[in-house]
Design a protein that fits this description.
The chain is an alpha+beta fold. Helices cover about 45% and strands about 25% of the residues. It contains 9 helices and 10 strands. The protein has a 7-stranded mixed β-sheet, with helices on both faces. It has a 3-stranded antiparallel β-sheet with strand order 1-3-2. A hairpin with a 2-residue loop joins strand 6 and strand 7. Helix 2 packs across helix 5. The radius of gyration is 24 Å and the shape is elongated.
Length: about 290
């Protein structure tokens, strides 16, 4: 519980220190929720749909709609039918809204500079590194890894992205027909995991049965935007856990010669290199791991 207590203590200190609890955030005439919504709309150069904003901010649809209406009544935003989908409402800043966000950014920058004033340059560097590390770990913690059918749209979306990724990396290219078939990674035959960040698929991994007590891990992939978080190891652990739950004693996998970072990860996760066990034309290294 010490880690939970420490995180809660930091949250209480930080929210008080930057004025989150004040109804007039940054001294402007609005609470943090409305200020943040204005900022997010500004970040989308041509406006954003309410659905996109709801996903990005993790807000209840009714609450978001009420905030948007309040800002529209103040002349800070305008709403319209989305040009690409008439079922969606798009919201964009008015000139008055852009001016307020500009002032908001100025005040937020001044607040941040004030917080850093009391630190020496080396301490600022230390704080910056600590914040980057905290953000990386919190992102990883917020990602969910779910078991999905091998034929599901999210599974196929991830596999298509995986195929395009390695096709660009392999000198000989990659033929997508070599991907696992849905029936190989569903039901009793295997399993397919998808990683989600804010409802968006950002990674995947597949497990299929090789022999009665042996499984094979395939297509461990992470979207470029979610790399260097530790997500590949988390997917690998989920696949190993599923293999153990299915009664497998060992899992095997192969990898291409150019994927040196994958080879390093497998070795670090307890895999040992073994002789060729399959006829995969793209493989140059073969690994296995005994499951406890």
């Amino acid at each position: 519980m010490e880690d939970v207590t420490a995180l809660r203590r930091f949250n209480r200190y930080f929210t008080r220190r930057i004025g989150v609890l004040d109804d007039h955030y940054l001294g402007q005439d609005r609470p943090l929720g409305e200020a943040r919504l204005l900022f997010e709309i500004h970040e989308s150069a041509s406006g954003a749909s309410l659905r996109e904003l709801r996903t990005r901010l993790g807000l209840d649809a009714g609450y978001l709609s009420r905030m948007a209406k309040a800002l529209e009544a103040q002349g800070l935003v305008r709403t319209s039918v989305h040009p690409d989908d008439n079922r969606l409402r798009r919201v964009e800043l008015t000139p008055a809204g852009r001016a307020e966000v500009k002032e908001q950014n100025r005040r937020a920058g001044a607040l941040a500079a004030g917080l850093l004033e009391g630190l020496a340059p080396a301490q600022r560097t230390e704080l910056t590194a600590a914040l980057a590390g905290a953000q990386r770990l919190l992102r990883l913690a917020a990602i969910t890894v779910a078991l999905v059918p091998g034929a599901s749209p999210d599974a196929r979306t991830c596999l298509d992205a995986y195929a395009a990724d390695i096709d660009a990396r392999f000198p000989e290219g990659f033929d997508a027909s070599a991907l696992v078939r849905p029936e190989e990674v569903s039901g009793d035959a295997g399993a397919f995991f998808v990683a989600y960040e804010e409802s968006r698929p950002v990674g995947c991994g597949a497990l299929r049965r090789l022999e009665p007590r042996a499984g094979e891990i395939r297509h461990v992939w992470v979207h470029p935007d979610a790399r260097r978080l530790g997500l590949a190891r988390r997917l690998l652990a989920a696949l190993e856990g599923e293999a153990a739950a299915r009664g497998f004693d060992v899992v095997r996998l192969d990898t291409h010669a150019t994927l040196t970072e994958a080879q390093a990860m497998y070795r670090a996760c307890g895999y040992r290199e073994i002789p060729r066990y399959d006829d995969n034309e793209y493989a140059a290294h073969w690994f296995e791991k005994r499951l406890g």
